Amino acid sequence: MKIFLLLFAVLLGGLALAGVQRATHYPDVPTLVGDIIISLLLLAGAWACLTRVNHLSEARRTKPQEPK
């Protein structure tokens, strides 16, 4: 699950960067606003995935181990 979330976060982060790059090349105001909003949503998704991975990692570290 962590690998999937990390890959999804990388994908969303790359798409957010591409949106920022596109926004800098098209000075049309409606396009600029739309690109910025979509980039922020993609960045929020990437942040949420990374936060979830962090919570999964912490939960695994703090979970008491069973005796063998």
Protein architecture, described:
By secondary structure, the protein is mainly alpha-helical. It has one domain (1-62). It has two helices and no strands. It has helices at residues 2-25, 29-62. α1 packs antiparallel against α2 (29-62). It is rod-shaped and about 65 Å long. The mean pLDDT is 88. The chain crosses the membrane at residues 32-53. This is Outer membrane murein-binding lipoprotein Lpp. Keywords: Lipoprotein, Membrane, Transmembrane, Transmembrane helix.
| Count of individual beta strands | 0
Report the portion of residues in β strands.
under 5%
Q: Which descriptor suits the 3D outline? A: rod-shaped
Secondary-structure-derived class: mainly alpha
- Biggest pleated-sheet summary: none
Domain unit count: 1
Helical content class:
over 70%
What Rg is obtained from the alpha carbons, in whole angstroms? 17 Å
Provide mean pLDDT, rounded.
88
Q: Low-confidence runs (pLDDT<50, min 5 residues)? A: none
Instruction: Give the number of helices.
Output: 2
| H and E string | HH
Q: How far do the termini sit from each other?
A: 25 Å
Protein name: Outer membrane murein-binding lipoprotein Lpp
Transmembrane segments: 32-53
Keywords: Lipoprotein, Membrane, Transmembrane, Transmembrane helix
Sum up the structure in keywords:
about 70 residues, mainly alpha, about 85% helix, rod-shaped, transmembrane helix
